[in-house]
């Protein structure tokens, strides 16, 4: 099998299809890259794009998509439920085959330097690529979001890893990194009280003493008139989806509310779903090879 990396850039646009298409077309143009998924979210005003390719081709596609986003998205006008610091908010590289996490770190450094040098967008490195321990976790890098970072970036402790210590006038800043596979998972509640969602998120979040490998926050989804616990599962093998779902359901019941549904944003490993099936169906001795599609 050839060298493959996955790239999952998040762009701060989920409401204008023509802008999303223009950004995604930059990925489609690059030879050696396969577009896997495009997941826009109007309430978050954000789109998650997933593609795979040979490392240098993936880096090229990420750069061109970032350049197009900088051209078409004005962060001075952007509003959305999801935390963000730039038109291209975050670009992670994930090893898929014949590529190490260390090689993805090198890729992140190369892309960060290129974006800062050619597009004048300040770059922060996170996760495995972080040069500063305090920047390992994405929420810490995003502290203050776009509006807060405009002022804070001038402080020595918030200087970017690449580029000048000032925001691009319309594209803001971008976070680039390398990590293992992450599942973006949202759980919707039958309440408009976003404070309840925030309390539940705090109960499951690793940083607050909750589950390891879980990042979570509570947000309001205006278009559906409900609060949501939005979650990043940074290692589903360490903390599985069903455990988080059951805890959110239990915590919600304490406030007299229910879980009305959940959603996975973008792609997910088959094993994560098989683990949930094994748990809820109480399967005994079930093996991955029993899935029909894996044998075709």
What name does the CATH topology of the largest domain carry? Formiminotransferase-cyclodeaminase, Chain B, domain 1
Q: CATH superfamily membership of the largest domain, which one?
A: Formiminotransferase, N-terminal subdomain
Overall mean pLDDT? 95
Give me the count of strands: 11
Counting DSSP H or I runs of 4 or more residues, the number of helices is: 8
First-last Cα distance: 18 Å
Instruction: Kindly estimate the percentage of residues that lie in beta strands according to DSSP.
Output: 15-25%
Order of secondary-structure elements = EEHEEHEHEHHEEHEEHEH
**What CATH architecture of the largest domain would you give?**
2-Layer Sandwich
**Any idea of the CATH class of the largest domain?**
Alpha Beta
- Helical proportion, percent range: 25-40%
What ranges have pLDDT less than 50 throughout 5 or more consecutive residues? none
Organism: Sporomusa acidovorans (strain ATCC 49682 / DSM 3132 / Mol)
Pfam families: FTCD, FTCD_N
EC number: 2.1.2.5
Domain Formiminotransferase N-terminal subdomain: 3-180
Name its key features.
296 residues, alpha+beta, Formiminotransferase-cyclodeaminase, Chain B, domain 1, Alpha-Beta Plaits, four-stranded antiparallel beta sheet, 8 helices, globular
Describe the structure.
The chain is an alpha+beta fold. The protein contains eight helices and eleven strands. It has helices spanning 17-28, 55-72, 101-119, 138-141, 145-152, 194-204, 241-254, 270-281, and strands at residues 4-7, 10-11, 33-41, 46-53, 88-97, 123-127, 174-178, 183-189, 214-221, 226-233, 259-265. Residues 181-295 form the Formiminotransferase C-terminal subdomain domain. This is glutamate formimidoyltransferase.
């Amino acid at each position: 099998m050839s060298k493959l990396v996955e790239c999952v850039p998040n762009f701060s646009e989920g409401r204008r299809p023509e802008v999303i298409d223009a950004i995604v077309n930059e990925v489609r143009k690059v030879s050696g890259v396969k577009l896997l998924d495009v997941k826009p979210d109007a309430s978050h005003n954000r789109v998650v794009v997933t593609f795979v390719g040979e490392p240098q081709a993936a880096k090229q596609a990420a750069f061109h998509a970032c350049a197009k986003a900088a051209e078409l998205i004005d962060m001075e006008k952007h509003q959305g439920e999801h935390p963000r610091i730039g038109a291209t908010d975050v670009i992670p590289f994930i090893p898929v085959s014949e590529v190490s996490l260390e090689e993805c770190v090198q890729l992140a450094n190369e892309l960060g330097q290129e974006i800062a040098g050619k597009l004048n967008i300040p770059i922060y490195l996170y996760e495995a690529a972080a040069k500063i321990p305090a920047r390992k976790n994405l929420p810490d890098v995003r502290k203050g979001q776009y509006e807060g970072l405009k002022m804070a970036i001038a402080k020595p402790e918030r200087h970017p890893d690449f580029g000048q210590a000032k925001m691009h006038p319309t594209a803001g800043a971008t976070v680039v990194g390398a990590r293992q596979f992450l599942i973006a998972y949202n759980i919707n509640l039958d309440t408009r009280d976003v404070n309840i969602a925030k309390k539940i998120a705090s109960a499951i979040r690793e940083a607050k003493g909750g589950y390891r490998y879980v990042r979570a926050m509570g947000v309001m989804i205006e278009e559906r008139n409900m609060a949501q616990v939005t979650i990043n599962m940074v290692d589903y093998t360490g903390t599985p989806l069903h455990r988080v779902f059951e805890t959110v359901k239990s915590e919600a019941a304490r406030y007299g509310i229910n879980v009305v549904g959940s959603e996975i944003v973008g792609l997910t490993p088959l094993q994560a779903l098989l683990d949930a099936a094994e748990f809820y169906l109480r399967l005994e001795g079930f093996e991955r090879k029993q899935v029909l599609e894996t044998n075709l």
